[in-house]
Amino acid sequence: MLILVTNDDGIHAPGVAALAESLAPLGQVVIVAPDRDRSAIGHALTLHAPLRADELTPGVFAVDGTPTDCVNLGIHGLLPATPDLVVAGINRGANLGDDITYSGTVSAAMEATLMGVPALAVSLGGETYTASEYSNAGGAALFLARKTLQDGLPVDTFLNVNVPSGRIRGMRLTRQGRRRYADMVVEKLDPRGRKYYWLGGGECDFEYLDGTDCHALHEGFISVTPLHLDLTNFQSFECLSLWNADYPVG
Amino acid sequence: MLILVTNDDGIHAPGVAALAESLAPLGQVVIVAPDRDRSAIGHALTLHAPLRADELTPGVFAVDGTPTDCVNLGIHGLLPATPDLVVAGINRGANLGDDITYSGTVSAAMEATLMGVPALAVSLGGETYTASEYSNAGGAALFLARKTLQDGLPVDTFLNVNVPSGRIRGMRLTRQGRRRYADMVVEKLDPRGRKYYWLGGGECDFEYLDGTDCHALHEGFISVTPLHLDLTNFQSFECLSLWNADYPVG
Predict the structure, then answer these.
(1) Which one of 3.40.50.300, 2.60.40.290, 3.40.1210.10, 3.10.20.30 gives the CATH number of domain A2-178+208-233?
(2) Which of the listed residues A173, A188, A220, B43 has the most CB atoms within 10 Å of its CB?
(3) Which chain A residues in 175-204 lie under 8 Å from chain B, judged by CB atoms?
(4) pLDDT tens-digit map of A12-45
(5) What is the pTM of this model?
(6) What number is the ipTM of this complex?
(7) Minimal Cα–Cα distance from B162 to chain A, Å?
(8) Which residues in chain A have their CB less than 8 angstroms from residue B140's CB?
(9) How many CB atoms lie within 10 A of CB B152?
(10) Listed residue (B92, B85, B65, B89) closest to B25, CA to CA
């Protein structure tokens, strides 16, 4: 088996090494990861500039791009063959609810799915990030990687996996939760009296509803959310279908 | 009515001015857009650096960030009140199928939806991008903006609108199409003989299936795709629910 491992915290983050080590029993693991922290980058793809890939040690590539770039370049340029699986992580911090649309970790798994390769995104919740917590998360990644390689994933679907810190009570299949957003912008003045702004300043709360990713993690369970590529809201077709009829054709 | 207009092609692109002009009959239009081209940036959010907003003319702000930043900063910092509507575009080029996950235009509308503000993403297909084509797309944006303000949108749902070039045959409600990805990476050598890579080099084809966004646009119809924030693949729960039972709880 050939496994591509990537992340968005950068190639020197402890999570990517822990993940590669955990998956080593499955076969050959190649790491292709950003050369620095590219968190909150979403599904950004670098089209306006060339990319460099620096092979730090055999099978470990640092790329001056986004996690999406790493998966794309890994699959089509750096790896000796198409990988059997792409695993992104272990992210330092959970990727839950609506926040997954910003996540470089989740976007890397999405990119692999677009390329037809089964994929997992693995994140570690909590606040301590100890070696034993990364090892627990790696164990969950190995379990789900084995299942994925054996049974396959549903078409166009990848798994968003969040592992709690501390004792793990089990594993739950969950849906993507919601977040309530508060005022997010902090306004400041620079030394010359000109305004500037920081995003992400406000408090945010997840809705801890039963069945969601955030609820499972909060209860001490590994959360496994199957995500797909189709954003279409099919349920809205009925109420919106009347709009077309009114459009004036000239 | 207060309308926030943004884009990902940058504040000096003709599409954003055409859009603001088209929507002017609805009320006050404020433009908050990136200071340069930020295409293919996805749902990237700038958290590691402060942002500047330069008011070029009254109600026209250039921000040194992503389209997502612009919406976030516009809603929480720059506008006098929460806008009634956010419209992103008019993008130079269609945003169809799986490609929407890379799109700054679509991500701007997604960000507004996360903030609880109704939103449209508007893109112009074809290859010529004439003033009259932008004006046609602006007309479609105005029609759908009026509908949205009158009737509202389904919860957590925004519209991805693609307008064809040339004569418009009508408007269709569509689902997100699929794309077949080919080899996407071009490998080159720099003057010193070191490798570098360009992404996006290969040929890509949309699957022109009836009912999809790409099919409607190809047939000369305005494509209106209702998208939502929930990526959960609920249909996969049945086959994946057996996995949890096997997880060893220690």
Answers:
(1) 3.40.1210.10
(2) B43
(3) 175-176, 179, 181, 183-185, 187-188, 194-200, 202
(4) 999 999 999 999 999 999 999 999 988 767 777 7
(5) 0.89
(6) 0.87
(7) 14
(8) 247
(9) 11
(10) B85
